[in-house]
Prior knowledge:
Helix content of chain C: over 70%
Strand content of chain A: 15-25%
Structural class of chain C: mainly alpha
Radius of gyration of chain A: 27 Å
Distance between the termini of chain C: 19 Å
Structural class of chain A: alpha+beta
Order of helices and strands of chain C: HHHHHHHHHHH
Oligomer: heterotrimer
Amino acid sequence: MKRLAAVVALLGLTAVTACSGGGTTNESSSGGGGGGLFTTIDVNRPGIDPNGPANPYNPKGNSFLGYNAMKLAWVKNHLTDPNQFYPGIAESWEIAEDNSSITIKLHAGNKWSDGRPVTAEDVRLSIGVAYTQGSTAFALTPGAAGAAADVEVVDDLTVKVTQDMTNPSSKFARGVLDTFVAPAHIWGSVLPDDFWDKLKASRGEGEDAEKAREEITALGEKIIAFAPEKDVSAGPFTLERVNPGEALLVKNPNFYNAANVAPDQVKFLNYTGNEQIWNYLISGKLDHAGFTAAPADVMNRIKQAPGTNIIKGYSPVAVGMAFNQTKKPYDNVHVRRGLAYLIDRAEVTKVASPEGGTAAVTTSGIHQKPAQEWLGAELNNLEPYNPDPAKAEEEFEAAGLQKKDGKWALPDGSPWKVTMTAPSGFSDWIAAQENIKGQLVEAGVDAEVVTVADYPLYLEEIAAGKYDVGFWLIALGPAPYDIFQRLYGASNGWTNVAGKITHSAPGKNGNWMGGAEEVEVDGTKINPGELTGKLNSVGAEEAKPIMLQLAKAANQDLPVIQLWDYVNTQFTNTSRFTGFPEQDSDLLRLPAGVWIQLGMVKKTS
Amino acid sequence: MTVIARRLAGHLARGIVMILVVATISFFIVRNIPGDPVAARYQKLLEQGMSPEAAERATAVMYGFLPQGSMWEQYVDYMTGLFRLDLGVSVTHPGSPVTSVLLGAAKWTVLPVLAGTLLSFLVGVIMGVYAAIKRSGKLGDFLAVSGSLLHGVPQYVLALLMGAIFTTLIPILPQGGTADILYEPGFNAGYIGSLIEHATLPVVTYALASYGGWILAMKSSVVTVLGDDFILAAELRGMKRTIVFRYVARNAILPLFTILALSLGLLFGGAIFIEKIFNYPGLGFLLIDSVVNRDYALMGGAFLLITAAIIVANILADLFYSVIDPRVRSGEEVSA
Amino acid sequence: MSSAILETTGTAATMRRNFWRGVWRVMRRKPSRLFGAVILLGFVFMGVFGPMFYPEVLPRDTSKLYAPMSAEHWFGTDGQGRDVLAQVITGSRYVLLSALVTAVITVVLGTAIGLFSGFKRGRWDTVLMRLTDMKLTIPGLPLLLVLSTVWSFGSALEMGLLLGLLGWGGVARAVRSQTLSLRERGFIEAARGLGLSTSHIVGKELLPSMAPYIAMNMLIAVTGAVYAQVGLFFLGVLPYEADNWGVMLNLSVFGGGALTTTAALPYMLAPLLAILLLTLAIVLVVDAMDEIFNPRLREE
């Protein structure tokens, strides 16, 4: 009996291993055939959900941007101009000089994957859906900046959208074109027949309008849950099937540029942690992967994989060490400057984000790439805060801090400890804070790192003013307003309601930075929050002097110490496909599906 | 039989009460968690380079999925929903009811854990008999200590070691996922082969982790039986060793079936570390994910399902025990 | 090993006399057990005195990130250029202290409730055992995962307290059934008949005969607590503590790529090795105790 059981158990094991061998070989033979299989991951969405519908509005939906989910056009995220695009569902567009309207032309003869034509009606329906989802151009909030006033179907292939000029925004066209387009013949039922009347009713003031807005917002939930039976796409691919680990897309022959779409199939791999992406990359499995942080040794292994091609570009984010200026001694600008002189940003970046960031050249509130465009030569006139212990000492003394037995203490002699907080799970932030802690302790400033359970809690507590020092994302480009609203926006007391800027006292309305309402820049007092608000409505040339003033304010007043600017490092593999974007291309800020649909990616011959 | 029926009824009633209690506990723990998941998602999207307006748009709709109303109203809603198997709507899987998300993940936990449990049971029991019989020899000693070690070492240590060996040093097994999507799902060699290939690491690791427990339990059970009078009598009567062995094995294995029934309770929640390390999309994985993303409804639901499985397994184990233990069958009082 | 059913042959006094002789015999027969005891003592030493050998903030060397094993750095360095071995040692205090707290709470609560329940019987027994059943039914790790969102794990004491409060069920159940079996043998009635007080019966008669069993449970509780907390830190659901074994595992795998390349492998292996050694030590010691106190397993 015992021998039999043992034999059975062993047989079971060999069967398992035998099958696994078979599986691997099968994959390589069946995968290589046809016009090519493009393997990738969606870095914005770890975990593939087999329950997710083919619905671009659903965050877990199996609609992959640029592959089977299409927008009117693809935002280039140009360094300074928010209104540059690549064609998507729209072939071309015309933006009125004063930004008051945009006229969109669709591709002639473009069809959905089920053969029905793509028309202006699809666009109109999609705009209706956008209203339920809280869009910028299609916002229900009365007085929202850059909202549309009217949507007009001119003919089968033309749609004109006009802006409500009471609170205009230079980003209006971007808000319009950055809209998903769904097929009206499938999605038509999600909006009630009287939707457009309701929308009109929601425009006014008073109870009826309020009720209409509520009804429209309530539709949003239904739309997110909407699950079309079959994926009908106007993109280069349609969804074939999904399992919990992978999703398979096949080429859509009806796509307007199908002749230039190289891959026959696209496979999305599931991942839940970076370490999986590293393994995929090292084994050369992926044709493309978006930005993924990797330690140096892993990076070397990835580079050794045959065909690996690493492209770097600009990522419109930077991270800063932010101070709560209601807490002592951080209310004193000399303390902040002293810390800026103490921290070696290059070392911090090397430890925390060697591949995904470059040390900030200075604190300007702007990512170093667009900073050159915005500030020009003035960028070099900003104080770079190079590591300089002597200057740090000077600043600390100016702040009245006392040095006792090689340790800095507060002016009243009580001990000073820089307590930095980070959400657990943000390994690069924690690594950076650990490194800063080491640097500060060496310089005689006591420091500690505290983590909180998770990001939601971190945001709630930082907004409640519970932390002395925390990390904060800044410089969110490319729109100038977005860049500075992270420094001189709600978190620092200025709120923008219907184009009007109001300032709240520290501790109120989410003001946790608690900076002064007016800052002295080169001897004159400015109100950085109001200046930031102005950026919303001005063009690029008008914005430049304001940007300079704000950059100087950030540089001299240091509400944050800009630590590193993120770099958009992407991985491609040229063994199977070529024609990937150049270094620094604006396409790097768009999904690889857009590269494919624009016809850039070619099969390696 | 009526005794067993009465026992069953009692157990069922107690099981239901327990499930309600657990549901209540998980409801209140889960609703008291601080932190705003919507704000967090917004910031996360920003960090990924999404423009503020797109991030706002992506998060705005999530508000609709967060439970509204006072705590008490939410509680009543939750409990009444429970009877309709309605556990609410998941924030991280918008539009999908928690129940369907859970069921989707559950099958990826049940199969590997079941396979792993049976595999380890089979091997563990056989090795356990050996360890007991040869307990004075080197082999028995080795088996016992290896059993204790494997039993003692936490799952994640084994899983990390297995992962380091089979996905990094000798990369022959896939890391994560359930099957290659290129195969049409269904009863075909390619798909099933791919399924097995992907399940190998989780199954073998689970089997290794639980094998130690079986070997120890079987060893001590055999040792107990060996000391019983009827074995001694059999030996004295000069019965063949193989027959004695059969006697021993049959009597020693009975209590293990109860433990087996109990361990089936871990079908849903027994492989949390393994799923995390091998990226296998089961319930444990879902639970961690929901904790990290503060998905209240999903967290509560996963926890409830995992606990309910254990309650049901306990009832089954007790029934099984009733069937094999004559004292219970005859209605005699058994002191727990 | 947990199947130790006590043979309550001798009284406390004779037990004590035979005890050390028995310990020595068992240890001598299998030197590996002595080895286990030595390792266990080593861990205690490490937890108590280890952190004193290092500065509060470990020195870093940013030119040596994930350095390989060398004479200078036995287990290499981490992503900040800090010595890995030093972190295992400084981190042992949190891990071991909280495990100790857990073990003490588990054993004290479990024994008290088990004794009380088994001794009093009746309604209290029913209520307490229902409660125990419930605790035993609710799965530990999932519960900890859910609780990790509300409980503060800042200090080793808080961690130990929570794990202890969750862990007493098994001990309570076992102690109760031991008490019941002692009672069934007329043990308690006899003592009552001699006019001994309840506190005497519990303190002088019941507890000593259960002590070895309880001690074994305590050791097992220590391993359980170590696994649970290291596991929670590894999963990354808890706030990070600078040098905790679980945090090291987490950072090595998810930050350093220990499962991807060999550079961070020593960083992962060091805490794993510490856990394995600790487990081995406790397994060996419990095995020895089992044999000392459970004559049935002793070989002819």
